[in-house]
Amino acid sequence: MADIYLTRLIENALAEDIGPGDVTAEATIKADSVSDAVMLAKQDQLLAGLDVAREVFRFLDGTIQFFPYAKDGDKLTGGTEIARLSGNTRALLAGERVALNLMQHLSGIATLTAQYVDLIKGCNARMLDTRKTTPGLRRLEKDAVRIGGGGNHRFGLFDGVLIKDNHIKAAGGVAKAVEAARAHAHHLLRIEVETKTMDEVAEALAAKADIIMLDNMTVEMMREAVKLVAGRALLEASGNVSLQTVRQIAETGVDFISAGSLTHSAPAMDISMKIK
Amino acid sequence: MADIYLTRLIENALAEDIGPGDVTAEATIKADSVSDAVMLAKQDQLLAGLDVAREVFRFLDGTIQFFPYAKDGDKLTGGTEIARLSGNTRALLAGERVALNLMQHLSGIATLTAQYVDLIKGCNARMLDTRKTTPGLRRLEKDAVRIGGGGNHRFGLFDGVLIKDNHIKAAGGVAKAVEAARAHAHHLLRIEVETKTMDEVAEALAAKADIIMLDNMTVEMMREAVKLVAGRALLEASGNVSLQTVRQIAETGVDFISAGSLTHSAPAMDISMKIK
Amino acid sequence: MADIYLTRLIENALAEDIGPGDVTAEATIKADSVSDAVMLAKQDQLLAGLDVAREVFRFLDGTIQFFPYAKDGDKLTGGTEIARLSGNTRALLAGERVALNLMQHLSGIATLTAQYVDLIKGCNARMLDTRKTTPGLRRLEKDAVRIGGGGNHRFGLFDGVLIKDNHIKAAGGVAKAVEAARAHAHHLLRIEVETKTMDEVAEALAAKADIIMLDNMTVEMMREAVKLVAGRALLEASGNVSLQTVRQIAETGVDFISAGSLTHSAPAMDISMKIK
Amino acid sequence: MADIYLTRLIENALAEDIGPGDVTAEATIKADSVSDAVMLAKQDQLLAGLDVAREVFRFLDGTIQFFPYAKDGDKLTGGTEIARLSGNTRALLAGERVALNLMQHLSGIATLTAQYVDLIKGCNARMLDTRKTTPGLRRLEKDAVRIGGGGNHRFGLFDGVLIKDNHIKAAGGVAKAVEAARAHAHHLLRIEVETKTMDEVAEALAAKADIIMLDNMTVEMMREAVKLVAGRALLEASGNVSLQTVRQIAETGVDFISAGSLTHSAPAMDISMKIK
Amino acid sequence: MADIYLTRLIENALAEDIGPGDVTAEATIKADSVSDAVMLAKQDQLLAGLDVAREVFRFLDGTIQFFPYAKDGDKLTGGTEIARLSGNTRALLAGERVALNLMQHLSGIATLTAQYVDLIKGCNARMLDTRKTTPGLRRLEKDAVRIGGGGNHRFGLFDGVLIKDNHIKAAGGVAKAVEAARAHAHHLLRIEVETKTMDEVAEALAAKADIIMLDNMTVEMMREAVKLVAGRALLEASGNVSLQTVRQIAETGVDFISAGSLTHSAPAMDISMKIK
Amino acid sequence: MADIYLTRLIENALAEDIGPGDVTAEATIKADSVSDAVMLAKQDQLLAGLDVAREVFRFLDGTIQFFPYAKDGDKLTGGTEIARLSGNTRALLAGERVALNLMQHLSGIATLTAQYVDLIKGCNARMLDTRKTTPGLRRLEKDAVRIGGGGNHRFGLFDGVLIKDNHIKAAGGVAKAVEAARAHAHHLLRIEVETKTMDEVAEALAAKADIIMLDNMTVEMMREAVKLVAGRALLEASGNVSLQTVRQIAETGVDFISAGSLTHSAPAMDISMKIK
User: Fold this and answer.
1) Rounded distance, CA F186 to CA D116, Å?
2) Selection from B56, B164, B48 nearest residue B110 by Cα
3) If you count Cβ atoms within 10 Å of the first and of the last residue's Cβ in chain A, which end, N or C, has fewer?
4) What's residue D79's pLDDT?
5) B94 and chain C: CB distance < 8 Å anywhere?
6) What's the rounded Cα separation, in Å, for the pair A31 and A8?
7) pLDDT band at residue F202, thresholds of 50, 70 and 90?
8) Is F210 marked active-site?
9) C-alpha to C-alpha distance for D192 and D199, rounded to whole angstroms
10) Which residues face E234 on adjacent strands?
11) Residue A276: pLDDT above 90?
12) Quick check: F11 and D1 CB within 8 A?
C-alpha cells in the first residue's frame, strides 16, 4: 500500500543527498552497469528501518531486487547479513547513504528502547516515547519505538489532550481545564493532566482526568501517587528516566514511563553496505 | 535574508507536530492570550540552533518578541538563561517543541564536535563531519559542526568527487577513475580517492588525487601514509574515530579527520522552555 | 498565529481560480486602483468562514483593510452587512470568489448543524460530524460544525480507534480486536466499536469498549442499548439521522448522534460581495 | 494518461484522512490480508466519480483489482452494484472514505444537473455551471456537470472575459471595457458582458460583446432581451435559477442558463462500500 | 497583490542557484553588511522583467530598497542605469544572478518582439507568440511579448480550441471536429482550425470556425485565403515567419501572425549589476 | 534510475501546458485512441534532450512505446528521423509541446556549444558554461553543454568558491578572502579568484588561488597572464567570448573559456513531431 508520508520523506532525503547529480558515479560508472550489494550489521542491535531502506531503493529504481535476510524487530549479532540487493549500480550507490542513515538511526532507537523494555520486564509499566523526536522523522521514530517493544505517546498536539500548568492557569484551575477539553476535543480522545505534587494529583483525579502524568517526581512520590489514585486513572511517569532509574520507576506501579531519550539520544547502530 | 531551506524545514516540522490543531491549547487558552517565556540550558553545553529556534517563532507569529541572552557558539553552563520570549501564548506553545527539538539536537552536535576539536588542539588536523547525517536536517547539522569548531566534508554527492573501490573497479583502475572524474566534474571540484593500503595510497598519489582518504587504517599506517605522501596530497583519516582515538590520529599528521558520530550519535542537550 | 493548513488551502484555491491571471481585470482595471467593498448575508444564516475569508484577502494583499461587522457563530438575518473591505481593486476581485465560496459553504454547514442542535436541546446527546467531508476541506468543515454548536468526531483514521465488522473478523472477535487496539494505539486514544445488534452491543461492552456505536438501529433498539449499557460506555447513534428523526434519537439517551449530512449535504448560504 | 491534477488531489485527500496512519487497521488487520469489496448505490442517482474512485485505489495500491459494473453517466436505481474490488484489505479500508466522499459528492452534482437538464428538454438553452465551486475540486465538479448533461462556464478568471459593472466603471463605459479586453485577451477568448437592464443589454450589443449575461432579470425582461438581441450575441441567464424557474427561463429563448447551485448545493448521493 | 505563480517561480529559481548556501559570500562577507548596487543596460534594448527582478529581491529580503530608473516597456540605450538597490550585501549577491537571468531573457523577448511589431506597423496584423515557450516560464515570456508590443496566443491546451489534422481525422472531418468542440468547450472559448490548403480554408469556413490558421502557406496563398474568407473568420498566419518575411505576410491582410521564435530564440540582452 | 529533479520539472511543465485539460483533444479524440508519431530534425543540429523527451512521454503514459533512431550527442542533418512513438493519442498530443520545447532548446545549446568546441580544436582550452542559465532548467542546460562537447562551470553558489571584487573588498584583500574561503568551504572545493588586471593576477597567484579568472581582458593581457602564471594556477577566460573571438582566446593558452551565451542565447533547433 502506498505510504504517502514515507514516499515524500524518501524523495526529500534523496534530493538532499543527490542534488544535481552524483558527480563521481556519473564520471566512472556506466548508466547500465549492474551490481550486487550486501547489507551487514556491524554491531549487535535490534533491527529497525529495513522496510524503509527497501522503499528507498524501490523509489530509486523499481527493478532493483531486494532480498531480506532479516526483518524489523530481529535481534542481530554483529556480522549478520541483513539483506542482499541486486540491480543498477548507480542506483545502489545513490540510495546507499540515505538508506543506511535511516536504518542506523532507527535501529539505534529500537535497540535503546529494547534495553529499557528489558529492564522493566515483569512490571506492569509500558515504556513510551514522547514528542521529543527529530523534526521530519517522527512517524518513523515512533515506529522504531514500537519495533523495540515500546509504545507510543500521542503523535502530536492534535491527537491527545495533555493539560500542563499553562493550560490550567489559563483555564482557571484543573477542573475547568479538563471540562474545557472535554467540550472541545472529540470523544475518542482521552485527557491527561500533568502534575508535580500530590495535591495536584488529587486535583487531577477529582477533575476526572483519564491519565495523570507524574512529572519529575521522586520514586517515593510516584509510589504515593499510585496508592492515592488506586486505579481510578492511568499514571504516566515522566522526567529523570534513564537506564539506571527505569526499573525502580516501573516498580512503583505506574502504567507508563515516557522518555525523550528513546528518540533524541539513541546512538546510531553500525550498518554497512558493500557493493561488489 | 530569506532562507528557503530553513523556512521549508520549519513549515514541515510544525505541520508534523500541530497537524489539524493543538486541541489542548484551543480548548483552554484564549486566542489573544499573551505570555512571557524563558529558555534555559539545563546542562553544560555549546549552544547551537538558537537562530533556528528564533525563526521557528518568527514563522509562527511575526509579533513574538525574542530576546537572546546567548548566541550560537557560546559555551553555557547548566542553568543559564538562553533567551526570553514574549507574545501570543498559543504560538509560544505551538512552537515550543519544534524549537527545542531542533536546538537540543544541534547543541548536541556542536557540543560533541567541540569535545573532538579540543582533543586535537595543537595538531594540524581539522575535524570534519560526513554524509552520515539525519535525512532532512543535513544543512543544519553541518552548520552545528562548524559552530562546534569543526569543518564540513562535501555536502552531498554533487559537490565533491570521492572515488571509492566501486568507482575504481568500474573505471578500470585508480588512474582511469581520476581521469574520468577530471573530465566530467567541473574545475572547482577537487578529487578525493579512498584507500585501504599503502599500495593504494601510492596509486592515488600517482594518479594525482587532490586528497587521499585513509579508510580504517591503523595509526601506524596513517603515519606511514603521511610520510609517503609528504604533502603532495591532502590526507583524510576516516573510520574508528572516537574521543579515545582522535588525538593519536591527529598526531600522525593527517590534514583531516572525519567522523559520522558527530552527527548521527550526539546525544541531545537538555534545554527547557517555561511559559509563565 | 500562522495557520499552515489554511495558508496552503488558500494558496491552492486562489491558484485554481486565478491561474495565469485575471484577464478581465488586467484589461480594464489599473494595477493601483483602490475600492471599497461590502459583504452581505442574503438569507438568514449562522455565519461561519468569516475568519477564513479575511485570511484569503490578507494572503492576496496585506494592505487590504477588513472591517468585520459580524463574527463566526453569529445568527444573521438576510440583508445584514457582514464586513466592509477597502483596498486594491484587482486584489478584491481576485479574492472575491474564493472567499465567498468558502464562506457560503461553511455557513451552510454551521446553519444546518445549528438546526440539528436546536432540535435536540434539552437532551443529553451531542451532535457530531463524521469523516464524510469534502476532500481537502475537512478541518474547515469540522470547525464550521463546532461553530454551529455541534461537536467533532475523530478527524481521520489516525486520531481515534473505530472498530468495524471487518476489523472484528480479521482480529478474531470483538474482544481480540479491542485488545489489539489497546496494544497498538497510544494511551490517549479511546476505542469505539460499531454494533448492529443487541448481542454485538453486549459483546462490545464485555470487551470494555470506551464507546459503542449503534449503527443504523431503530429508535427502539437504541433505547434498549442505553438500558443495557447503563453508563458503562458512551453511546453514539449513527445512520438514518435526519432533521425528522434526530429528536427521537436524542430522547433515547444516547450520548452522541453523528450525521454525515452536516458536511456533505448542507446547501450553501447566499452571501454576496459588492465592490463599489 | 497521467492526470497530474487528479493525482495531486487524491494524494492530498488521502494524506488528510490517513495522516500518520490508520490506527485501527494497523492494530487488527494483517499487512498482507486481502479482501473483496462491493460498491453499492443506495439511492437512485446519476453516477459520477467512478473513474475518480478507481484512481484513488490505483494510487493506494496498484495491485487492487477494480471491476466496474457501471460507468460515469449511468442512471442507477437504488440497490445497484457499482463495482467490485479485490485486493489488500488495509488499502481498501484506507481508500474507502476518500473514494466514497468524492463519488457521493460528484454523483450529487451530476444528478442535480440532470434534473435541470431534463426540465429544459426541447428548449434551445444549455445548462451551465459557474465559478461557485468547492475550492480545490473545481475540475472534478465541472466534469460532473458535463456528466450530468450540462455544460461548463469558463474554468476560472483566466480562460474567458466576463465584464461586470466594476470593470465597466473602471474602464469608462461598456464600449471601452470591451475594447480594452479585446486588446489584452488572446484571440481565442470571447468576451461576455454582464447586464441588469435593457439599456445595458443594448449597450453591450453595441459594444459587440460576444455574449451578454442577463443578471437577475425577470422572465419578461429575458424575453425582451432575446427579442432585442435577435441572435446578434449569445445570451446567458443568471440568478434566481431553480428547479421551479428553469423551464420558464429556458422558454424565453436564452442560449445558456447558469446556476451556482449545481455545484455548491447538490446534496451527496448515498453510496456505500462493503468489505467482505 | 500576491502573485502565487511568480513567488513559486522565484523560490525555485533561488533554490536552484543557492542550494545549501553561497559558500563564497558566507566566507567573506559579514551577515549584516550593507551595500548599494546599480543595474545597467549594456546594450540597446526594450526592457522587460524589471518588476520580476524587484520581486526577486523583495522575496530574498523585504528591507532591500529598490529604486527603478526605468520601467518595463522602456526603450533603453546601452549604458542606461535601470535601477539602484540598497540593502544587505549577501542578499544582493544571492539574488543578482536569478534577477539578471530573468531580466536578460525577458528583455530579449520584448526586444525581438518589438522588432517584429515595428516591421508590420501600418498593417492590420497583430504579432503573436505561441506555445513554443521555455517550460516553467510561459507566463513571464508571454508578459514579455505583450511588453514588446505583441499579443498572446492561447496560454495552453486549456484556454482555446485549436483543431489540427489529427483532431480532424479523429473526429471524422472538419465540420464534425468543430461541432464536437462547440459541444465540449465552454462558450467563452473560440475555435480555431489549422489549414494547409485553400480547400481546407474553405472547409473550415463552412464549418464556422472562428479563426482559421494558415499553416506554412506561401504569401500568395495567404493573399488568396484573405480574399476567400472575406472577413467571415479571423486569419492567423503561422510558419516561416522571420524578420525577413513578416512584412510581406502582414501585407496579405491576415489578422494575426504567430512566431515561436519570439520566445524560443530571442538572444538575451546584456544587463549587468554592480555591487559597490 | 529515478531522477527526482527531472520528474518534478516535467510535472510542472506539463501542468503549465495542460492546466485543467486539453479541450481540443477531449472534444475530438476518444480516450482510448492510439496513434503512431514520428519526431523529425528539420535542420542540421547536434541532438540533445531526447532522453528528456522520452521521460516526458513515460511520465504521461507508461504504455507509450518510444523507439529512438538517434541519441543525445548525434550530429543530425535536416530531415533525419529522431524517434518513433506509438501509444495513446491524447497522451502523445499532451506531451508533444513540452517534449519539443525541451528538445529544441537543449539541442540549440548543444549545437552552439559544439560550434565553439570545434573552433578551439587543437588548443588546450575547454569551453565552459556559466550560471547564466534559464531559471529552473539549469541542470538540463548544463547537461546539454556537456553533450555539445563543453564542460561545466560550478552549478550554483554552493559547489565552488568564486571570489569577486565585492568579496575581496569585504574580506580586506585577496589573500584574506582566499584564506577565509579555505577556512569556511569544505576541502573538496577549489577556490577561484576573478581578476581584471595583471596586478590582480599576481595577487591572486600569491594568495594561492587554485584558479584565476581573467575577466574581460584583451587577448594580449590573457597571453601575458598565461606567461606570468606559468602553470601555477588554472586560468579561465571570461567576457567578450564569441564565435569570432574564441579561437584567439584559446590560443593564448588559457585552460578554460566560459561563455554565458552557450545557455542564454542559443537559438532553438527546429524539430517537429507528426502524429499519424
Assistant:
1) 69
2) B48
3) C
4) 97
5) yes
6) 25
7) very high
8) no
9) 16
10) E211
11) no
12) no
Q: Supply the pLDDT for residue D223.
A: 98
Query: Which grid cell is B251?
Result: 598526531
Determine the residue type at A272: S
Those chains having 3 or more beta-carbon pairs within 8 angstroms of chain A are B, C, D, F
Q: What is the DSSP string of chain A?
A: ---HHHHHHHHHHHHHHHTT--HHHHHHS-TT-EEEEEEEE-S-EE---HHHHHHHHHHH-TT-EEEESS-TT-EE-TT-EEEEEEEEHHHHHHHHHHHHHHHHHHHHHHHHHHHHHHHTTTSS-EEE--S---TT-HHHHHHHHHHTT-B---SSTTSSEEE-HHHHHHHTSHHHHHHHHHHHS-TTB-EEEEESSHHHHHHHHHTT-SEEEEES--HHHHHHHHHHHTTSSEEEEESS--TTTHHHHHHTT-SEEE-THHHHSPPPPPEEEEE-
Name the residue among F161, F156, F256, F261 with its Cα closest to residue F215: F256
DSSP C233: S
| Cα B102 from Cα A132, distance rounded (Å) | 9
Stretch E234-247: mean pLDDT, rounded?
97
Helix (H) or strand (E) holding B81: strand B81-88
Name the residue type at position D275. I
CA distance F204 to F177: 10
Which B residues in the span 118-147 are in contact with E, Cβ-Cβ below 8 Å?
138-139, 142
Contact D191, D178 (CB under 8 A): yes
> So which residues of B are the catalytic ones?
97, 132, 164, 194, 215
The question of whether A227 is a catalytic residue gets the answer: no
Contact call for F24 and E163, based on CB within 8 A: yes
Q: How many CB atoms lie within 10 A of CB D31?
A: 11
Would the pLDDT of E220 be above 90?
yes
Taking CB atoms and an 8 Å limit, are E91 and B1 in contact across chains?
yes
For the record, the C-alpha cell of F51 comes out as 532522453
Write down the number of H helices and E strands in chain F.
11, 12
How far apart are the C-alpha atoms of B256 and B236, rounded to whole Å?
A: 4
Nearest neighbour of C188 by CB, restricted to A146, A192, A255: A192
ipTM (interface pTM): 0.96
Cell numbers given for C258:
453523528
| N-terminal to C-terminal alpha carbon distance within chain D | 31
